[in-house]
Each structure stands twice: as C-alpha cells, then as structure tokens.
Amino acid sequence: MTALFLLTVLALTAYMVSCVIWPFRACRTCAGAGRFRSPSGKAWRYCRKCSGRGAQLRTGRRIWNALKRIDRR
Q: Under 8 Å CB-to-CB from 21, ≥6 apart: which residues?
C-alpha cells in the first residue's frame, strides 16, 4: 500500500515537472498545424480550438497557474 502511494506521488511530481518545462501540447483538433485547408483546397482557415496557434495549455499547467495565483498571505 505504501509503495503504491509513493509511486503515485512520484508520478504526479514527474507530471507537474514536465508541465513546468513543457507547458503546451499540440492542439488535437488541427494536430498542431493551427489551420485547415478550405473545402476548395485553395485557402486556409484557422483552427477555432487553438485560435491558429497550434498549441494548447496542458491541464497540469492550468493547475500550476491556479496554484500560483492563490494569495498566500
């Protein structure tokens, strides 16, 4: 039981460290391209999910940012 707890804490710590180092992930909708071809194939349109950036903030980084915003007086 203790080993499982320690393994879980270690995994969560490793995930949070990776979120600090790499805060963004590729957008799943456009696969990181940030745009799509139009049906005619002649023009591009930007991805609505990521606003054309091709990257989205990871969930762990959102949690990290929220924890940093807490007023600790």
A: none
Q: How far apart are the first and last CA of the chain?
A: 36
User: What are the φ and ψ backbone dihedral angles of 45, each rounded to 5 degrees?
Assistant: -135, 150
Query: Is-contact 57 24, C-beta < 8 A?
Result: yes
Positions in the chain short of pLDDT 50: none
Which has the closest alpha carbon to 29: 59, 50, 57?
50
Q: Are strands 55-57 and 44-46 parallel, antiparallel or unpaired?
A: unpaired
Give the chain's largest Cα–Cα span: 59
How far apart CA 62 and CA 21 sit, in angstroms, is 13
Please tell me the pTM assigned to this model: 0.71
CA angle (53, 66, 11) in 5-degree steps: 85
What was the pLDDT predicted at 9? 96
